[in-house]
Amino acid sequence: MPVGGPCLFLSVNVSARLPDYRRSLGYLRTHRWPKLLLGTLLGLFLLDRLFPPPTRVAYSTLVTAADGTTLHAFLNRNDKWRMYATLDDITPRLRQAILRKEDRWFYWHPGLNPVAMARAAGRNLLSGRRTSGASTITMQVVRLLEPRPRTYLSKLIEAARAVQLEAHLSKDEILQLYLNLIPYGGNVEGIKSASLIFFGKPPQLLSLAEITTLAIIPNRPSSLRLGDNNAAIVQARNAWLRRFEQAGTFDEKAVQDALNEPLDARRRPAPNQAPQLSLRLRTEQPDQPIIVSTLQPAVQAATERLVRQYVDRVRGQNIHNAAVLVINNQTGAVEAYVGSADFANTFDGGQVDGVQAIRSPGSALKPLLYALAFDKGLITPKAKLNDVPTNFGGYEPDNYDRHFNGPVTAEFALANSLNIPAVKLLRDVSTPSFVGTLRQAGFRTVQKQADDLGLSMILGGCGVTLEELTQAYTAFADGGKVREVRFVADAPTKTGSPSAADESTSPAIFSPEAAFLVTNTLTQITRPDLPNNFDNSYRLPRIAWKTGTSYGRRDAWSIGYNRHYTVGVWVGNFSGVGVPDLSGANTATPLLFQVFNAIDYNTPTGWFRAPAGGKLASRQVCPESGDAPERTCEGRAVDYYIMGVSRASRCQHQTMVWTNAAGTLSYCAHCRPTGGDSLLRPVARLYPNLAPEVVAWYAASNRPYAAIPPHNPACERVFGTGVAPLITSLNQNSEYFINPQKPADLALTCQAANDVRRVYWYLNEKLYRAAKPTETLFFTPTPGTLTIACADDKGRVSRVRVLIKRE
C-alpha cells in the first residue's frame, strides 16, 4: 500500500476521470440542442404535473343486478344521463364501426394524425372554409373533456392535450372514454346511455343497424334526433352501412340484414327497478359509477309485480302500501328488495323505504324469545304455560282475541301467538338477556331503546325494521346462526370476509336444537294465523312462518322461511293510520305465500331435519305438566328435550291432601286423625296443584275445578310455607293521584293458592276487611304513603307499598 493509503488511490482515480467530465461540459457548452432537449423535456414534465389531463368524469350511477342487468339509473350531478360503459360493453362489432367511421388509424397514431391534419388543412385552404377537422378520437375526447371555441388555436391545444392523454391512458381506455362522452342530444351522453334510453337494451345486445345508428348521431345530434327524425336517420344509417360494406368492414350478408332492419328508436324512461335499494346504495357509494347489487332480476321483477298487484286489491280496505325483502339463506344475498308498492305514488308515501322504516313488530319477535327459552332450559315444547289474566308488576297484557285458554303447552302458545305466556317467558328469561340476543342478531333500533324497554317489548313495544326482522329469522334456517345480509355482490362483511356465506361470519344467537324446535312449531298448518280460505284458492307453500300485528292495527307482518329463502313481508300505511281489517294473518300472510309460490315453488332443497350430534332427544312426559311423569299421572306424551339443558323436574300437577271421608275438610300432618272410627279416618285424595292466577281465572270465569277443602278449623297451626297471596291491585311502588274534594275509591284484588278460602286485608297494618280470595274490595284513600298487606288463612302474607298524591 503506497503512502497515503486509500485516500491517495482515490485522488488518483478522480484525477484520471477529470478529463472525461471536462470534455462532457465542453460539449454541452459548444452544442445547445442537448440543453434545449433537456429543458424541453423538463418543461413538459412540469406542465404535465401542473396541468394533468382532466380524466375525472361525473358519471350517472348505475345499479345493476347480480348478473349485470341494469336495474336503476340516476342522473349525474350535472343532470345528464352519462352512464359508464365498461370495456366489456364495447363489443368487437361496435369497436369496428366506431373506428371505421371516426378514426381508422386510432391504434397507430400518438394522439394526432399528421397526414390527416395536413390533408384537412389543404382542403380548408383551397375551399376557403372549414370542410374537415381531421380530429382523432383522442382529440375528440379532449374536446369533450374541455370544450373550447372551434379555432385553429383550440385545435393546436387539443393536439397537444391529445398527445398528453395518450401518455396517461391506454388506447382501449381512450376509446372507452370517448364512447362514454359522445353526445346524443339533450342530456343523453355516452353509448350506454343512448343504448338503454333509445333502444332499451345494453350495448352488448345492439344489432349492426343500431350500432351504426348510434355511430352517426354524435356528428349531428341536433338534426338527427332519435324518435323525432327517424326517417332521416335511416337514410344516413344506410349510407354508412354501404360504406362499411364497400370498405370490407362487415360482410355483405350482415350489411344487407342491417339495411332491412326497421328503426325502432324512441325515448324510453331510464331503468327504474328497485328504487329504494338503488337510492340506498348510491348514498352509501356516491362516487361509484356502477354498483353491482345482489338482486336477481327475475326474483325482483316478480316480487315488485306481486306487491303492486296485491296493494291494488287491498286498497279498498284503506291499506295503501307493502314492503318485501327476500334473502337467500345459503349466501346471505338479498335477491329482492321492494320498499313500497309504487315509488311514484307520493300521496301514499311511495318513496318511503319500508325495508328500513322503524315499525312496531307486534308478535313477530316471539319465536326468538321461545328459542332463547329452549336454550335456557326453561321450557320444552310440551311444557305447560298458563294463559290466564296475569299481573306482571302492574302490567296486565291481554290476548289478541281477548280470550284465554288456561294451561297450554309451549308449542301451542307459540303456534297460536298467545300473549300472556310470551310475557311470562320474557320475565323468566329477563329483558336485558333478550335485548342482548336481539343486539347480537343485528337489531340496531332495539339497541338504542334498550334502557327504556320492558316486558311489553315482546308484544310490539319496541321498534324494528323489516330488514332486521327478516335477517334475524335466517337464524332458524341456518341452525341458530344469523346470516349477515349482503346488498352488494362480493362486498366484504363487517368482519372483513369477502363473502357472508363464510360460516365464521355468522353469529349464533341460539342452538341448532332450539332453531329446530321453533321451526317444528311454526310449520304447523292448524294455526289461527293461516289466512282465511287461503288453502281453498291458492297453493300453500311448504314454509315455516310467523305473523305479527302491531297495536292499533297499524302494521301487519309475516316472516317465512324454508331452506332456500327467508322472506319478510310488511303491509300497512306509512302514515301510521290503523285499519280495522289489518292483521298479520289475513293481510300480510297471503302476500308472503304468493311470493314463495312465485320464486320458490317445488323447491328441491328439502326440509329441515333434527340437528346431528345427539343433543336433541325425546322422552315421555306427563301431558298435564310437560314434566317427567309420576305414577299418579294419567297418560303419557312424547316431548323433545335438549340433553343437559332442558329441565328434568318431576311432575307436580297434583298434590295429595288428607281430607275427611266426606271431602269437606282437609287436614295437615299436625291435626290429621289417626285410628278410630272408619267414618272419621282421613282419606288421601289428589287435587290439582294450581297456580294462584289459574285459580282466580277459574273462579272469575265460573269454570269448575277441584278446590282443596278448607283446613280443619279446630287446628291452630300457622303455615309458613307455600305461596303467599299475590296482590294484583294496587301495584308495588306505584303513585296514585286523587282529588281530595271527590276522592275515587281504589280496588283491592289478589290471587291466592288453591287451598285458600279466606284472605285478610290490612291498610297500614290495620285490619280493613276479610274476604274471599276472588272478591274485589274498595276503599277510599287519603294522601300519603300506604302499605297494603294481604294474609291468607294459612298465615302467608304479601305486602306492597304505594304513594297516594293529590292531583
UniProtKB/TrEMBL annotation:
Enzyme Commission number(s) of this protein: 2.4.99.28
One Pfam family, short name: Transgly
UniProt domain Penicillin-binding protein transpeptidase: residue ranges: 323-556
The Glycosyl transferase family domain, residue ranges: 69-243
Transmembrane segments: none
The keyword Transmembrane helix belongs to this UniProt entry's keyword annotation: no
Pathway per the UniProt entry: Cell wall biogenesis; peptidoglycan biosynthesis
Recorded catalytic activity of this chain's protein: [GlcNAc-(1->4)-Mur2Ac(oyl-L-Ala-gamma-D-Glu-L-Lys-D-Ala-D-Ala)](n)-di-trans,octa-cis-undecaprenyl diphosphate + beta-D-GlcNAc-(1->4)-Mur2Ac(oyl-L-Ala-gamma-D-Glu-L-Lys-D-Ala-D-Ala)-di-trans,octa-cis-undecaprenyl diphosphate = [GlcNAc-(1->4)-Mur2Ac(oyl-L-Ala-gamma-D-Glu-L-Lys-D-Ala-D-Ala)](n+1)-di-trans,octa-cis-undecaprenyl diphosphate + di-trans,octa-cis-undecaprenyl diphosphate + H(+)
The keyword Kinase appears for this protein: no
Domain Penicillin-binding C-terminal: 724-802
Family: In the N-terminal section; belongs to the glycosyltransferase 51 family. In the C-terminal section; belongs to the transpeptidase family.
Annotated protein name in UniProt: peptidoglycan glycosyltransferase
Organism annotation: Fibrella forsythiae
Organism taxonomic ancestry: Bacteria, Pseudomonadati, Bacteroidota, Cytophagia, Cytophagales
